[in-house]
Fold this sequence. Notes:
Elements: H1 61-74, H2 79-102, H3 109-131, H4 138-143, E1 147-154, E2 159-160, E3 165-166, E4 169-170, E5 174-186, E6 191-203, H5 204-207, E7 210-211, E8 223-224, E9 235-243, E10 254-258, E11 265-268, H6 272-287, H7 293-304, H8 312-320, H9 331-342, H10 356-359, H11 364-381, H12 386-404, H13 410-424, H14 432-457, H15 462-486, E12 488-490, H16 493-517, H17 522-548, E13 553-555, H18 560-580, H19 584-599, H20 602-609, E14 616-620, E15 629-632, E16 638-641, H21 647-657, E17 661-662, E18 665-667, H22 672-675, H23 678-682, E19 686-687, E20 690-692, H24 699-711, E21 716-718, E22 724-727, E23 730-736, E24 769-774, E25 777-781, H25 787-794, E26 807-809, H26 820-826, E27 830-833, H27 846-854, E28 858-861, H28 862-865, E29 868-871, E30 878-881
Parallel strand pairs: 6-10, 16-18, 17-19, 18-20, 20-21, 25-26, 26-27, 27-28
Antiparallel strand pairs: 1-5, 1-9, 2-5, 3-4, 5-6, 7-8, 9-10, 9-11, 12-13, 14-15, 14-29, 15-16, 22-23, 23-24, 24-25, 29-30
Amino acid sequence: MSGAPELPARRDEAAPETLTAGPASPTGSASPARSSVHASSGKRLGSARPRQEGPTDLRLVPPALAAWGTAALVLDAPPGWVLGIVAGCLAAIGLLPLARRAGWASWSRASAAAVLLCVAAAAASAGLHGADLRRGPVPGLAREYATVTAEVEVTSDPRLTRPKVRGDHVAPTAVLIDAEVRRVQEAGGATLVTRAPVLMIVDLESAGRVVEDGRSAPAGGPVRSPWLGLLPSTRLRVGARLAPAMTGGDRVAAVLRVRGQAEPEVVGEPSAAQRLAGRLRAGLREATDGLPADARALLPGLVVGDTSRITPELEEAFKETDLTHTLAVSGANFTILLALLLGPPGLAQHVERRGLAPRLGVSLRATAVLGGVLSLGFVVVCRPDPSVLRAAACGAVALLALATGRRRSLIPALATAVLLLVMYDPWLARSYGFLLSVVATGALLTLAPRWSAGLRRRGVPPRLAEALAAAAAAQALCAPVVAVLSARVSLVAVPCNLIAEFAIAPATVLGFAALATAPVAMPVAQVLAWCAHWPAEWIAQVARTGAALPGAGVDWPGSWAGAALLAAVTSVVLLVGRRLLGHPWWCGVCGLALVLVVVQPPPLTRVVTGWPPPGWRLVMCDVGQGDAMVLAAGEGSGVVVDAGPDPQLVDHCLRSLGITRIPLVVLTHFHADHVAGLPGVLRGRAVGAIETTGFEEPADQAAFVRRQAAARRVPVTRAAAGEQRRTGELSWQVVWPPPSRPPTPPPGSHPDLLPAHPAPEGPNDASVAMLVRSAGLRLLLLGDLEPPAQRALARSPAAEELESVDVLKVAHHGSAYQDPGLMDRAAPRLALISCGADNRYGHPAPGTVAALRAGGAAVLRTDRDGALAVVGGGGELRVARD
């Protein structure tokens, strides 16, 4: 009922001493009583937990790095260069013995030969993969933008494009599918057999769509399309237009744009493995259907990398806190499953191991077989694409650690995984995800154990020391790469990852259990998913809370030079931090300073930065090409007029002002550059109501506003001229649009079939315009009114009250389309223009700016001056810039 330790891998390693039962055989091999490496259930092999010590074996690291770099450089190289590299490496291998005899090389001949051989192999593999993008008819047809009929094989899960604001509209939603063209036929030409990777874009505006969950649609609901249900390995026939690849250095030979095809024409069913994976994934989605929104979106991502339900808002919170690795399949998923089988990673360097396998008495060979089956199932369910293969390879590092208990085998295992994967798929050499995965794994294998030991020596509890060291090591090495991708550095990544770490394992394990039971027992799967939703909600709340902190991140140069600078800064911080660990008081001071930088209490921020200025009355937020303003309505309270195009920008503006209560949100009209940022306004704030124009166009954005309001139970009302409101010292009057009046019905018509009033010429002319009074100041906010509505406003009953205002929010971002009569009547002292830097519309128009200045107004604009705060009262008027 006892076991013996494993035999050492090398003769020069001493076998660890443990208390064991049963003598060793005369030959020195383990006796049958010692054939198992597992302890008996509930018992340990001995009181000691010896570690396998010895120098780290780095012999495979140079070949792996050489192959990685070669693959990254050679993918775009012409065939002649590839042949030259391969021939040169082979010739160099042949000359190595001569170089050794002549004394030109002091390096081991085997090591040099291994590096050269790996360079040659990587160059050959990369050359062949790169040639796939240039051979066959597809690249030539793409350069001609030819219309073709193609037979393609789907190679990835379909995914939707995220909504993007372009000017005053949201870009149409499309489905993106990675595929391979197998046959292609140009109009009137012969069918050609080929094999070319393409990116297939299905335009849903022309293909048609219906409502499900997760994305905005023109009809106001989320998107569902038959294209989204396709499984990898499915073969389709499509009529499409080819176009050159949008960016160089990618693994696609062309873009295949499909228009007007409502449903895919399937000519070949997916493989049995993909059908099984599809049923399992669909079962998990069904099991999570009844959960709260965050858990419902997050659990499929945690388990199998299905992020189709992740909202842009939640995704942004995960990016801000560097928790995005939890939304994709990673080695951590595989490690958690292996830990259930073999024991916790904390015992990887000890002889004793725990887990289901040793407790059930499963032998080492049977355990290895189970691990292999688990690996295969993981790859099948999570799709055998490069990202999943990378995750399985990195998870195999943990498998080797748990199976051997020796630290020295981990770096060679990681190097081997890198080498094999780069040879198999050279495009991984240019993948930021692959780079982050390898760097993070390397940090956990090299830095984390040393840092953990150092923390334990200073009295930190072992479990906390291991978790803190792992999070800090991964962040220190990955942050420069993340900065290149996002041009931002998270200051809350380590604490957020540390806090979320405790929930990742239970959420993943319960999620996989729900995945496995869903096809056979859906009620059981739903119970397991309900149990998993608690840790999933915890992770989502950690991300939202961390992202909501004012100092959660800082902007950083998004280039490799910026990455090098961040690496240097990180090194300095680590060196200083190491010295500070011996001075608890200084550690406390530095920790308090970091907390203040991240939390940014409004009183302290105002003292340090001067923003927001005391006594501010109106702030025009800098939200790019859009509108967002805040009217002061008391301490921590403000009326918001428009929300801009980006939730993050308007949320940042409101946080900098300390706004936590919003009595009213006024959306002047439904163009995206005024309403798309509404989720950022509603995020974490008490909102009384939303007031909009009665002209609900564009329909998709009007429906978007109503969905956002309904989700947070905020009432929506319509504004009309003559309405007057007050809150504290702030009061305002709606001066446009005019109230609805039923037109006189023509003879013989039914009144109920007539519109309430003649429709305006467009959404801009239906904008809500307001005359605001605050502390003696009069402010005129014109939305995006154009000349016809401006002239009508100048002739309206409120025209006399519009004369000689203090501040004018210039209509339509200062465009050239302004009514001179209204500007002359308003005669503002200060004109504010909200527009984006280098916008493609030429806003503000030079003529509009000149006319305002000629009328005596000071003109300020957000593209040059940033956020603007109007301060003062009565005759005093000042402007502060952020």
